[in-house]
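tool=predict chain=A
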Amino acid sequence: MRSMDARRAIACWLAATALAGWAGLAQSATKAQPSKLAKLATPAPAAIEIKLRHGLGSPAREVLANLAERFNAEQKGSARVVLEDLASLGESRQLPQLALLDADDSALFFHTLPRFKPLYQAMTAAGEKFNSSQFLPLIADAVDDPAGRLQALPLGLALPVLFWNKDALRRAGLDPDPEPKTWLQLQQLAGKLYDAGSRCPLTSSRFAWVHLENLSVQHGEPVSAKDARGVMRLVLNRMVDVKHVSLLASWQKSRYFHYFGSADEADRKFIGGECAMLTGASSLAATAQAAGISLGVAALPHYDDVYGVTPELLLPDGAALWLLAGNKPAEDRVAARFVAFLLRPAVQREWVAATGFLPMTAASLDAAAAAGTTRNLLSRKSHAGRGKHGYGLARQRQILAEELEAVWRSDRPPLAALNEAVRRINEEAAAAGNKR
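tool=predict ok
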């Protein structure tokens, strides 16, 4: 009996010892588990996020959003581009890493004047293939430095062209494909439209860019030139400038031409069918076609009685993709990858075809909405410096618009208005230069 009791005591002791051992092992395992779980639960590195601020309207806004989504998908969570629409940005003062803008509009985009990093430097530092010579000469000239190195990506540029609504011409009993080459031919066409009942035969957007800057360069007159002291001064009051503004003023009195404002106000009049013809930015083609307009497009007219006229010499204008200075190196690398993505031939063609902006390289020339009009112009040699001026373009154009308002009211002769505009611009430019 005692032997049985002894065996039971030993068994209980062994069981207790085993349970204690298992409890210890379990406790050890419990203590060790968090470190193993920690290793398993270590989060993946956060995606490098860069912001791209823009002021695009439709359809370019939607196209850019789609391209950003596709780029982000290719990064597989390691990086992403986030778009900031200027129209819905509110009072945010935080600077983005990229901005699609005319550099002269910095105050509108940032409420300050940030510095920009040259694009060619960022691409080289990131190891991305980038050759300035691949860009069409006229396009590169809009954003390059004196050495031909691109400071930004010329993504949203346009040329001045003449548009017409083919249906409006048909209703007037006119040839829907007239393609007037000179201002005299355009006057004759506008007169026929007016006689047929058109209340707005012709209008124009972005007046200073189209009818002063580009017209001067076409006819052998630079936008600016050095004076006797070597100071660069605006000279948009030469004979051809006065002649042209005088002609348009006479058209306005005859109801052939209507001036609605210095910016893009006339675009809406043309898209809405109120005006039959428009001089403006070539990028409007995509919007006009999307609105169902049977669109005719031709090169900007010229004067054939001016010595040295070269109609194909034009000044592209619009938004470029700028890289802000002061970003983290990793952010600049993501920005460089996004630029390389945008430069893919297939992406370029998609962008150009959908937005109407100018092709950047020969690879996307065939996608241009106005391909027949732009191909020869864009492929010509650069005319570096012929239209560049040292003072801010936005302010320059604002002053020109202010002084020309009196011309449209018939209160002042064109020569007096242009002289006063040039005087104000040059004085402000000199004052700004003295403050630096």
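The chain has a mean pLDDT of 84. The first helix runs from residue 2 to 40.
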